[in-house]
Specification:
Helix content: 25-40%
Number of helices: 18
Low-confidence stretches: 1-9
Oligomer: single chain
Largest sheet: 8 strands, mixed
Strand content: 15-25%
RNA sequence: GCCGACGUAGCUCAAUCGGCAGAGCAUCGACCUUGUAAGUCGAGGGUUGCCGGUUCGAUUCCGGCCGUCGGCUCCA
């Protein structure tokens, strides 16, 4: 999740001003209510704004925080300030003046110091702009701010903003800094748009994969008995995963991959060799000891694949080698970060390592990127953000290798015509990478695919191949995961479709609904024909009324409901209802089968 | 890990001031035999997250732990 990336900022200039100005108004209301509060920063963001405050400490030493009543009172006061139609007045000041104005505001002084030094803006973000220091004042509130702002607080529609939540946030986003109290709010040009936004939040709740996972009986977790972040896949979720994996594995075979399998634990020496115990120990589960040897649960599959490569001498003729594994890994995530299926402690990666010669590398990148897009698009993900992360300060590997790898990644992105953002210095210490991220129902970004160069492991494991010249050479290693992890992919997939999955992965595809008991035999006969045709079907032979059977099937988002009464039973026909509510009328069973098979083959929605 | 909110039946939620813990759905049983989103009646189901304190008495008040949710930091 990249909370602070540029996509999060409102695109529209006027909306940007509205949100920024509302943040200032909120800050005034907060400072009035808490005169001892120190203000930090308050930028506009996607869908709203926030402002951070330091409220000081309670007598018992704990952090002073906002209560729900505070939020209510602040919101009420904001309406008054908006109604006061105070103009926003911009002033340019010298650093000295700024320090005098904000003498009592330590966070602002920190920002001014940054501005003075140049190179960072008033949020502490890097900037190329010359260090002009400006303030904006409205009513009694003055803020260090680049702007721009509305002309007056009167332009803030008093019925189109709402304070949403309070949260803790570290100053400058660094957990070693003091924790501030952040208020999130939203504001829109009019109350209709506010209402639409709040409705969108409600819709997001309905699509939440944790809720749908329960309602559709797809998966569960049991923190008390099993452990947090450890997922139980129920039969319906399991069937979906099976379909997804089967599809992907078949494509891997077509793409020239070999399947390998590796154990869930490995000796400490392995993780010493790989460097994980140096760099990654905090995220690894504690070792288990047996017969004097330490074993660790694997946080990654990489070292095992390196060992498979090393198990014999490799010739340049053997390359490229592509080792794929649905490898389950365990990482000790801090308790506060677990989230449904999208952030867990045990997960299965659709992992693979590509071993190739330098001359093969550009083509391998092209192929893997194309493969990636093909897989994502097969599941209806057509919108995503691509990131190219380049060399960080601390890194291994020669600069020529980095140069070649970065150029290869960039060129592959260009050839694939994918718009991307460069995350300069965002690469891993062992190599540059491309990440593809998609959105969940709340617009939060989740990384699925990753294509990473690894300059570290080939050295650590001393991987070689014998070249045409009879000499040993170091192969390139590319680590990649397309869906990322089955858990996260599934979570995002659930939200993407709101539980109404394309027919080919729908756990139950057809609900056969007899109207009365006397139609049960005909219904079972139809279901048998459907199953024989490869469709997943069941009969609802419960004592419910037909209306209730339809309702239950609708709630389960089963694509097709086939109603069978006297007329259908007599003709060997079915009456077809789609989960969209559309009724397709009565047709022979064979006709429905042909239609449904076609939808499945095309991976269509319905 | 940090800040805040929350934790009552399988699920969604009630329970006034501290006084016998309830409803709907789901489950089970019986009846009903139905034409495109909930048929009727009945039954079972709880150490109110855990531990401790205050009290004659705690779902309720206090403290500690665990967990969930929203953020922060971190990450597939």
């Amino acid at each position: 999740m990249a909370a602070k990336d540029k996509n999060q900022e409102p695109q529209d200039e006027q909306l940007h001003k509205l949100r920024h100005s509302t943040a200032h108004v909120m800050a005034e209301a907060v400072v009035e209510r808490f005169p001892e509060a120190k203000v930090a920063i308050g930028p506009p963001i996607k869908d709203g704004f926030y402002y951070d405050f330091d409220l000081g400490r309670e007598p018992d030493g704990s952090l002073k925080t906002f209560s729900p009543e505070d939020l209510e009172a602040i919101e009420k006061r904001m309406r008054q300030i908006a109604g006061g139609r105070h103009p926003f007045i911009r002033s340019e000041v010298s650093a000295e003046e700024a320090k005098r104005i904000f003498a009592d505001e330590p966070y602002k002084l920190d920002l001014i110091a940054g501005l003075e030094a140049g190179g960072v803006d008033e949020y502490g973000e890097p900037t190329d702009e010359p260090p002009v220091i400006s303030t904006y004042q409205h009513d009694h509130f003055v803020d260090l701010c680049r702007g721009p702002h509305l002309e007056s607080t009167g332009q803030i529609p008093p019925d189109a903003f709402k304070l949403l939540t309070v949260a803790g946030a570290y100053w400058r986003g660094d957990e070693h800094n003091p924790m501030l109290q952040r208020i999130y709010g939203t504001v829109w040009p009019n109350k209709q748009q506010l209402a639409a936004y709040l409705e969108k939040l409600e819709e997001a709740k309905r699509r939440d994969h944790r809720r749908l996972g329960k309602e559709l009986d797809l998966f569960s977790t049991n923190p008390d008995e099993v452990g947090g972040g450890l997922v139980l896949w129920h039969p319906r979720g399991g069937l979906m995963r099976h379909m997804i994996e089967e599809f992907s594995k078949a494509e891997h075979l077509k793409g020239g991959y070999d399947f390998v399998y590796s154990p869930h634990i490995g000796r400490g020496t392995l993780w010493e060799t790989s460097g994980h115990l140096d760099f990654y120990k905090d995220s690894m589960y504690s070792p288990v000891e047996i017969e004097g040897q330490e074993f660790y649960l694997k946080p990654m599959n990489c070292p095992f694949h390196m060992e498979i490569y090393k198990s014999r001498t490799r010739s340049y003729r053997d390359l490229p080698l592509r080792f794929a594994e649905w490898g389950t890994v365990y990482r000790f995530e801090r308790s506060g970060v677990l989230h449904g299926l999208t952030r867990v402690r045990g997960f299965t990666q659709d992992d693979a390592h590509l071993f190739c010669r330098p001359d093969q590398m550009p083509e391998e990148i092209d192929r893997v990127l194309g493969f990636c897009l093909f897989i994502l698009r097969s599941f209806g993900f057509n919108e995503f953000n691509a990131y190219l992360s380049t060399r960080p300060e601390h890194r291994v590997g020669e600069d020529e290798k980095w140069e070649a790898a970065e150029r290869a990644l960039e060129a592959a992105l260009e050839r694939a015509e994918i718009p991307y953002q460069v995350d300069a210095g965002g690469g891993a210490f062992y190599g540059p990478k491309i990440d593809l991220k998609v959105y969940d129902a709340l617009g939060r970004e989740w990384q699925l695919s990753t294509v990473q160069f690894d300059f570290n492991l080939p050295e650590k494991f001393d991987l070689t191949y014998v070249g045409e010249d009879g000499q040993e050479h170091r192969p390139y290693v590319i680590h990649r995961a397309l869906m990322g992890s089955m858990e996260r992919f599934f979570g995002v997939l659930i939200e993407h479709f709101g539980g109404a999955f394309p027919v080919w992965i729908s756990p139950m595809q057809v609900e056969v609904i007899p109207i009365a008991d006397r139609h049960n035999d005909a219904a079972y006969e139809v279901a048998a024909q459907l199953k024989a045709a490869g469709l997943r079907a069941e009969v609802d032979a419960s004592s419910d009324r037909m209306n209730a059977k339809i309702r239950n099937a609708q709630l389960q988002k089963i694509p097709y409901m086939l109603v069978i009464g006297d007329r259908e039973a007599e003709d060997g026909a079915v009456n077809v209802r789609l989960r969209t509510g559309e009724q397709r009328g009565t047709m022979p069973v064979a006709e429905f089968i042909a239609y449904a098979q076609d939808v499945v083959a095309n991976k269509a929605l319905i």
